[in-house]
Amino acid sequence: MATDIGGLNVVRTRALRRGFGERVVLRDIDLDIARGEFVALLGRSGSGKSTLLRALAELDYDVPGSGELTVPAERAVVFQDSRLLPWIRVLDNVILGLRGTGAAERGRAALAEVGLAGREKAWPRELSGGEQQRVALARSLVREPELLLADEPFGALDALTRIRMHVLLQDLCARHKPAVLLVTHDVDEALLLADRVLVLDEGRIALDQRIDLERPRRHGDPAFIRHRSLLLASLGVGADDLHEEEKQAS
Ligand SMILES: Nc1ncnc2c1ncn2[C@@H]1O[C@H](COP(=O)(O)OP(=O)(O)OP(=O)(O)O)[C@@H](O)[C@H]1O
Ligand SMILES: [Mg+2]
Q1: For a pocket test of ligand 1, which of 16, 49, 152 has the largest count of ligand atoms closer than 8 A to its C-beta?
Q2: Which member of 30, 162, 178, 239 lies 3.0 to 4.6 Å from 148 by CB, making a disulfide possible if both were Cys?
Q3: Does the N-terminal peptide bond of residue 64 adopt cis geometry, omega within 30 degrees of 0?
Q4: CA distance 2 to 230
């Protein structure tokens, strides 16, 4: 059901369940996401993160399940690969399916926002991986979504490009204020960006932690390190695996 539930929350699930055959992947997920809230979703490989994201994107019509789900109609999804259409140019990718007058102008403005002014006529194959992901972000944000769903959007990028993308995503979110669900394997990425971090384990939300650190956040901040230790523990990384500085801070 794609409706606006109004009030403070844009996402609401109750007893959300999804499974494949005998295997239950999501068990009774109760999740609220507030308007403009940035939520990061961590969890081991196979814990059901993408299954939950696809449910919120309503892309899982082929997956049996039950429960209540309310999400806004204005949604955008970004994946690990940019999923640009290779046979149309960058600007046309950004505005594909966009209705109304001024679509091209809005597309140009979105490309400028992600630092790609002047590349409107390029083909997707002429862009680097990081640039293609920026086009994917422009394509999402040009629709002014109330909910941005991102499944490891920076997972395939090198470390330096990823840092740049973190800064860009923070700027874009500050300007457009969508609610965000960001699936990531990277605990630091979650702590740098999110207002709240969830850990999914065996189909349940095992941890739901508010991150009340000031921005811009710093890896070396003792509170950051404490949050990281807690999240790593929840992900099954034991104290013996932590760095010495983390043990001291926790
Ligand atoms: N189409 C499908 N058919 C059968 N099983 C599936 C299907 N899609 C996912 N699964 C199973 O559901 C479980 C959760 O998968 P999901 O992709 O949600 O995990 P994930 O947390 O996103 O993992 P990763 O971090 O590796 O991306 C896995 O055990 C997976 O094998
Ligand atoms: Mg996944």
Answers
A1: 49
A2: 178
A3: no
A4: 35
Of 133, 158, 143, 61, nearest to 106 by C-alpha is 143
How far away, in angstroms, is 27 Cα from ligand 1 center? 14
**Is the CB of 51 inside a 6 Å radius of any atom of ligand 1?**
yes
**Is any atom of ligand 1 closer than 6 Å to the C-beta of 47?**
yes
Question: In this structure, which residue's CA is closest to atom 30 in ligand 1?
Answer: 46
Cβ of 50 less than 6 Å from ligand 1: yes
pLDDT tens digits, one per residue of 170-229 = 999 999 999 999 999 999 999 999 999 999 999 999 999 999 999 999 999 999 999 999
Q: Count other Cβ atoms within 10 Å, centred on residue 236.
A: 10
Q: Is the dihedral of CA 42, 46, 50, 55 positive or negative?
A: negative
Kindly report, residue by residue over 43-53, the tens digit of the pLDDT. 999 999 999 99
SS3 30: strand
User: Smallest Cα–Cα separation from 75: which of 26, 2, 172, 13?
Assistant: 2
Residue 68: C-alpha distances to residues 52, 65, 148, 212 (Å): 13, 10, 20, 29
0.90 exceeded by the pTM?
yes
Torsion-angle region of residue 241: left (phi > 0), alpha (psi -120 to 50) or beta? Answer: alpha
Question: What is the distance in A from the centroid of ligand 2 to the CA of 54?
Answer: 10
Of all protein residues, the one whose alpha carbon is nearest to atom 26 of ligand 1 is: 45
The pair of structure tokens assigned to 93 is 């990718």
Closest CA to 221 of 205, 238, 245, 201: 245
- Read off the DSSP letter of residue 71: B
SS3 content of the chain, % helix, strand, coil (to 5): 35, 25, 40
